[in-house]
Amino acid sequence: MNRWTSGRPSVRAALAALVPTLGGCAWDTPMTTVIPRSDFAREIVHVYAIITWAAAGIALLVFAVLAVVLVRFRAGPGAPLPAQTRGHTLLELGWTIAPALVLLVISIPTLQVIFRTQAAPPAQALEVTVLGHQWWWEFRYPTLGIATANELHLPAGRPAVLRLEGPDVIHSFWVPQLGGKRDVVPGRSNQLTFTPQVAGEYWGQCAEFCGVSHANMRMRVIVDAPAAFEGWVAAQRATPPEPSGRAAEGKALFASRACVGCHTIRGISAGVLGPDLTTFGSRRTLAAGMVPNTPANVAAWVQNPGALKPGVKMPALGLTDDQARAVATYLESLQ
Ligand code: CUA
User: Fold this and answer.
1) Residue 268 near ligand 1, beta carbon < 6 Å
2) pTM (whole model) above 0.90
3) Are 150 and 215 in a shared domain?
């Protein structure tokens, strides 16, 4: 602390605000917008870079002129009022045309990217129907006959066309490393086409306020190498094995409780209000990306989902601790 920062409340407040602001800055985070991993995201970062450099250049110019003016035209004590300028046509024209030119320069690459990313999807694109629900994501693969929730698997190197639809309120699909935000609007089908380029796990999040658990409407996109993707599809299509022991107890509970009214497990139930659980055990997370998919978390969830996720539509099922553990064992066995 020196004499400038110690005494002034405004300086101290500004410094205090700077700390959390800069704390939010990072390059390589799960939701990074500056490390693109698809053609679409690369296009966005390209426009972003052009605008950032243009803005930086203009800022530098403005600050340089400002510094010169501050030093050169500084008034001494008792100096007279300087000459006043009014209605200067050249100046008026200058500061109208210059910003218009800046906007023009920015609009050219922006419009080019908009047109390129809105082109019709190629014929070999993998089709996925994305349904935004309060507060989870449903992914259906109409050409493959499978469905999953909150974890979208895509093959690397193959274009994917996502058809975004919604049964309740407006959501927004956003996986920053793969593409831009696109709204999911009930009653219409929006479209997002991109080609994931690098295998890996990418985080996403609903980006349109959609109710009390909006912040808990997360997702993962798992981009697999083509062969690994084929393996995943085959596993999704297989009929779950007949459980034994504790898992069999859990299956009996699942089949006799309200679970069957909302969830599909192929061969057991056909509910459509909640996520398809046919291969639940193969998922990495639970409750739309909120916590890791572990037996303890699943048991706590089925006993009282509202404790983890405010406003959740799934009711507490009135299971004992032992019953909840049996149901969790069964669900985890569904690989
Ligand atoms: Cu769905 Cu916010």
Assistant:
1) no
2) no
3) yes
